């Protein structure tokens, strides 16, 4: 018979959950982690933000805490709890250093700092926050280290119960004292008690279309794929059932890398990606600031911006989608290097792709009909179902800006202007890939969930993407590794405070 009494129940075994489990166990708690799937190790992210980590100190990376927090708050137009931002800043290096010391180095891997964060305009203000989980040979990320985190948790005495889903929280005398869980193999329900509390690390709600329609309806239109396969919102719903407060406006992290068939109706197209890493319609070049036009064939924004700005801008255009236009020449390493992109969009490690891999991906999308190729702009317009004259005029005007070395229309940096004047031409219809929703439960700086009166719900904690107050609207991707660090850092704190 399975045990039904613990000090702490953690719901979700990914980034926040794994760190919460380790921290709680290190502080003497008897911990159970439940997860509705069979595994979670592959979900752990490899670029983790911080300031003043050991890896950053080694490379003399020094980021001013006030400057960073003020940037994040300004990016969100003040729609955040700055106390949480400072809590993250002041504890972020602890999570990174713990992973490095306790998990990575014992397996031969290590943490290294990415010390550059190139930008030329305030629109692209960037910070060198990234710490890269690096494999022993130094060639790429250590993609499997999440399994090592789980192994470390088990060494600390943490018990894991897989294919076990949270159904409801148990409340007694106003305190959360346990959870009703369901074995997804047998559908048998069990009540498990938690003497010190329950920590929700359940992620967002991106795969739940009803919740997307309720909480983020524009995101449902501008995103073509949801890449957060587990994010059904179950932890949020369970907390709301017991009176928890939630962020009132949406927040999300979105990549502009979703190629869709010509003629796609964005209002009806929303696919849940269940096959990582072979993600359907993935177009890595979408995050490069090449020429983009609306479905009328007209340029409509400065392509040099955080990823998500493209979908925001497209939401004010017909059809909620964009068309990206480029050439064979602008796919060469020479041109790809000049953009100085950050995070996973950068060329070569710590980016996802090399130039050869990016070009190979374009050929794959070409075979699938998601990328179009033509010898003239007129032919490309026809293949993309764009007004021919409008696209020809847009390309002509863009090339005039390139030749002049100044974007007089939208102000893109000269270094990010590339000619579109040499066949063969390429094009794709592009929308958003929702990585995760980030609007979550309101929490204190001790990760305690509060109710609608802003009173703490005793015994209930939240960390990671199901916790709120930290993001609003679009994700600031020029602070590389922020979502991962938010989850890991606040998971670590939640475990510590719940175990007290």
From TrEMBL:
Gene Ontology MF: a single term: steroid dehydrogenase activity, acting on the CH-CH group of donors
Pfam families: FAD_binding_2 (PF00890)
InterPro entries xrefs: FAD-dep_OxRdtase_2_FAD-bd, FAD-oxidoreductase_2, FAD/NAD-bd_sf, Succ_DH/fumarate_Rdtase_cat_sf
Domain of life: Bacteria
This protein's UniProt keywords: FAD, Flavoprotein, Oxidoreductase
Keyword Transmembrane helix in annotation: no
Domain (FAD-dependent oxidoreductase 2 FAD-binding): residue spans on this chain: 7-476
Cofactor: FAD
SUPFAM superfamilies in alphabetical order: FAD/NAD(P)-binding domain, Succinate dehydrogenase/fumarate reductase flavoprotein, catalytic domain
Single GO biological process annotation from the record: steroid metabolic process
Full protein name: FAD binding domain protein
The organism's taxonomic lineage, starting at the top: Bacteria, Bacillati, Bacillota, Bacilli, Lactobacillales
